[in-house]
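Lab channel / #folding
Pinned by the channel admin:
"Please post every new chain as: sequence first, then the structure tokens as a reply. Keep commentary short and put observations after the output so the thread stays searchable."

First post following the new format, from NK:
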Amino acid sequence: MKQSMILLHGLFGGLSNWAGVVTHFESRFDIHIPPLPIYDQHGEDNLDYLVNFLTGYIQSAQLENVILVGNSLGGHVAILYTHRYPEKVARLILTGSSGLYENTSMGSYPKRSNYAYIKERVAYTFYDPATATDALVAEVFATTTDARKCFHIVKMAKSAQRNYVAALLPQISTVVLLIWGEEDKITPPEVALEFKRYLPQAELVMLSKCGHAPMMELPAEFNAALDAFLTSTQDYLPVADPA
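Reply from TO:
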């Protein structure tokens, strides 16, 4: 049986954000990319709702000893899940994670219907603005011009800001890999260093000429860092029965 790997996208992210990771690892791992229900109507704290969703997903799929990989908001969800259910997580990988500090400002509401403004904000996510393809900008633009989705995004961002994880991190004994862009303007490199300081067992890989989503902007470098981490710690990974 293959080791399971769960990939969690960010607030404005989608399943396609992980295309390079899937291509690289799918032959060796059981890959899961659950779409986070950011736009659901519910009565819970928004971040708690996402953690409960992930809990239900892992239970339903009967997954054990998962490798949990999260970008931005997805990293925040992964941290909270790992803290609550450490026995379920074999390895935790965070890239541009929220939880300590994140600049999520998208500007004033009227500008959210301005395509040029949204294109500039999406490009701000990356070191190389060319990474903000027309398709990616169109996807974010469609989200920001949907009043219902925009409302839920604002509420989710506020929930993330309330859920400050500094007090929880020292309690996480899981081995962690931090993969960070040196030019990340949303969760700057200082945030990565703070994560490393708080987490008992954390390794940090900084990628130059890279912004907030390394798995999209530098997929080869991201995959190499993740591969090296999993290889170097394989003696500590739970051994799955052969298929």
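NK: The radius of gyration is 17 Å.
TO: also worth noting, The chain has nine helices and six strands.
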